[in-house]
Amino acid sequence: MPETARHRGAALAVLCAASLMVVLDGSIVAVALPAIQADLGFSAPGLAWVVNAYLVAFGGLLLLSGRLGDLAGRRRVFLTGLAVFTAASLAAGLAPNAASLVVARFAQGVGGALASAVVLGLIVTMYPEPGPRARAIGVYSFTQAAGASIGLVAGGALTHAFDWHWTFYVNLPIGVAALALAPLVVEADRGTGLRDGIDVLGALLVTGGVMLLGYGIVLPGWTFTTVGALAAATVLLAGFVLRQARARTPLLPLRLLRIRAVAGANLTMVVMVAGFLGFQFVTALYLQQVLGFDALGTGLAFLPAPVMIAVFSLGLSDRLSTRFSPRAVLVAGLLVTAMAFLLLTRVRADGGYFLHVFPALVLMGSGAGMAIPALMGLAMSAAGPADSGVTSGLITTTQQVGAAIGTAVLASAAAARTGELLSTATPAREALAAGFRFAYGLSAGLVTFAAVLAGVALTPRRRPAELRTADVGPTG
């Protein structure tokens, strides 16, 4: 990897800019959906696939992409994914009909998975020293934590100033610049080689399983299709685990899951992100459906969260982790975020943004800015150079699974509570606000559970020699 601080800084900037572009794409389109529906004639159920096609492909291919990076070279996989994502963004902007847009969004998900899965692995390889690595992970974590909120702002601004096509065209200059600069500043790595082959059966099982899991989660209601998709996903993922135990060159070496830091961090990530991303979805609905914000106003309303995430993840998180410990900072950040969600359980039908939403966004951004860099660092701390790609892909996969679960569960819970109140002749805005309050309570519960999980699962085990020394105590 590049040896000078200047080269490493330039490489980090390129990697994080590309990563931010991919993260933005998950949310930047959300505020443009009404305009897309009117222009291309999407049905109401079909419109959801403008988002879902991207998420299903992205989540399903992350683990495979990370392992490909370990075998074929992480820079090569990154550049391939970036090229696919940029070309698919152009195709999405030019889409003449609904079907072609959905296909282009699926291709964006493929490219996004290839590019994103190896970024964290490249960063930890570039920064072997603990201090610089913590700061670099803080920068990367900012792109992951704040990207969705920034996407809402950018999507609202682009749709308001131009039209929905520009939510895709905006990726082109970033993608082309990153493709031009990455070969100059990100040093090539050889990978461990494909001579022993890749576990094709394992790749098919995990890709199909995660895609079906995402598909089943995003489908509305407990229909036969939903249950069938989730059941098939369970079978495929169970088959994947069995395959990894026997494969000569496993896609996901199961020894990684026996590492306490890796397993604990991934479990914590699922629960944490379920609370975080579900909160974003519910808050966007509250701002629009209850407080009457338009698309641009909704995006701008989220700004306090990414600002505070930047303050903590870019400037304070690594210092706090050095002073205390990554685990302590993670737990503290999660508890601060849970307090933010508890504040949001006070939202009302006649509420105000600065009274009920703004303080919680500031608190939530502060907690997320502490928690996410600490968790990313813990997840990668035990990964060796040969496994950094698949470990990076694994933590990004669990992040996506958590986001899908959280959005589906919290949206369904809010809708169910609202529907229950509407059946009793409760005014619509009051029923909506009550549904959102219920969802915020669930978010607070999820994040509190993540804090407990992190406190227990990420507690370092003391080695037998250390235990014996502690039992004997000081002598003399």
From TrEMBL:
<dbReference type="GO" id="GO:0005886">
    <property type="term" value="C:plasma membrane"/>
</dbReference>
<feature type="transmembrane region" description="Helical">
    <location>
        <begin position="328"/>
        <end position="347"/>
    </location>
</feature>
<keyword id="KW-1133">Transmembrane helix</keyword>
<feature type="transmembrane region" description="Helical">
    <location>
        <begin position="76"/>
        <end position="94"/>
    </location>
</feature>
<feature type="transmembrane region" description="Helical">
    <location>
        <begin position="438"/>
        <end position="458"/>
    </location>
</feature>
<feature type="transmembrane region" description="Helical">
    <location>
        <begin position="168"/>
        <end position="186"/>
    </location>
</feature>
<feature type="transmembrane region" description="Helical">
    <location>
        <begin position="106"/>
        <end position="127"/>
    </location>
</feature>
<dbReference type="Pfam" id="PF07690">
    <property type="entry name" value="MFS_1"/>
</dbReference>
<keyword id="KW-1003">Cell membrane</keyword>
<keyword id="KW-0472">Membrane</keyword>
<dbReference type="InterPro" id="IPR020846">
    <property type="entry name" value="MFS_dom"/>
</dbReference>
<keyword id="KW-0813">Transport</keyword>
<dbReference type="InterPro" id="IPR036259">
    <property type="entry name" value="MFS_trans_sf"/>
</dbReference>
<feature type="domain" description="Major facilitator superfamily (MFS) profile">
    <location>
        <begin position="11"/>
        <end position="463"/>
    </location>
</feature>
<feature type="transmembrane region" description="Helical">
    <location>
        <begin position="139"/>
        <end position="162"/>
    </location>
</feature>
<feature type="transmembrane region" description="Helical">
    <location>
        <begin position="293"/>
        <end position="316"/>
    </location>
</feature>
<keyword id="KW-0812">Transmembrane</keyword>
<protein>
    <submittedName>
        <fullName>EmrB/QacA subfamily drug resistance transporter</fullName>
    </submittedName>
</protein>
<feature type="transmembrane region" description="Helical">
    <location>
        <begin position="198"/>
        <end position="218"/>
    </location>
</feature>
<feature type="transmembrane region" description="Helical">
    <location>
        <begin position="401"/>
        <end position="418"/>
    </location>
</feature>
<dbReference type="InterPro" id="IPR011701">
    <property type="entry name" value="MFS"/>
</dbReference>
<dbReference type="GO" id="GO:0022857">
    <property type="term" value="F:transmembrane transporter activity"/>
</dbReference>
<feature type="transmembrane region" description="Helical">
    <location>
        <begin position="263"/>
        <end position="287"/>
    </location>
</feature>
<feature type="transmembrane region" description="Helical">
    <location>
        <begin position="42"/>
        <end position="64"/>
    </location>
</feature>
<feature type="transmembrane region" description="Helical">
    <location>
        <begin position="12"/>
        <end position="36"/>
    </location>
</feature>
<feature type="transmembrane region" description="Helical">
    <location>
        <begin position="353"/>
        <end position="380"/>
    </location>
</feature>
<feature type="transmembrane region" description="Helical">
    <location>
        <begin position="224"/>
        <end position="242"/>
    </location>
</feature>
